[in-house]
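Open question from group meeting: does this chain pack into something compact, or does most of it stay loose? Before anyone orders reagents, we agreed to write out a predicted structure and look at it together. Recording both the input and the output here so the notebook holds the full record.
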Amino acid sequence: MKSPKEISVNEKLVTLTKEIIELTEDKDQLPLQILQALIDDEEIQAIQDYANNVSIVRLGYNDHGPVHMRTVCRNALKMLKILHQSGIKTSLENEQAGSFLDSVCAVMIAGFMHDFGMTIGRQDHELYSGILAYNIIDRILNQALSGQGNLRRKIIIRSMAMEGILGHMGTRRIHSIEAGLILIADGCDMTKGRARIPMELNKVPSVGDIHKYSANSIEKVKIHQGSEKPIQIEVFMSSDVGFFQIEEVLIPKINSSPAKGFVELYAGVEDKEMKKYL
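Structure tokens returned:
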């Protein structure tokens, strides 16, 4: 059963996807079809739920479940929309391998599946995510692209989604804007809601504690049109411990991203001057 927060993020994703489709000339409904399939799929739901159980209960980390994966999807789609409105083409567009909406589909799939590997453990979880996601991506795309002549399109979207999944930790070189946005979008999901449950669990100190306490100080993250670069990310925190999330998690991900040149980053404690990082 989906939580109220999960239902809310689903609704926001549907709205955002419709807005993105309306920006295009052909109004291709494939992203909306794929999004609905991702939301409704029982296997995806079960994997996301158990990934959260392993992350929070076994490892003492913050949220890596359905809300987090949907939030990463939404963050990436927000940035993709901003880039499109700024006249910046995706890698698939630049390479003349696919359309803007093909990039949207790939980013959407990667967002929903990037932490599947947390069902197994933290180390190399991005690789396990790719293993667990591959057949599900195939199934989702086969359903959505059932007509003849779509094999090439399916392969391209699947490949781009896989790059986003495998590259979301910033430990492996990635080359596309699409995968780079997943990397940044993952780092942007750092608000205190992610740390609420592990903070409430009565446990002995563990390796994930700094992530929990740091995330618990992040009040909000805003992603919107920038002034100097297309995308501006603003992080508002309640205490200085939140700078750990900025400097040790988000900035390394932005620096490893092919989309780095499109992003400006500001962060600071609320009611104090914001610090410009990028």
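Observations to bring back to the group:
The two ends are 40 Å apart (CA to CA).
Residues 195-202 have pLDDT under 50 and may be disordered.
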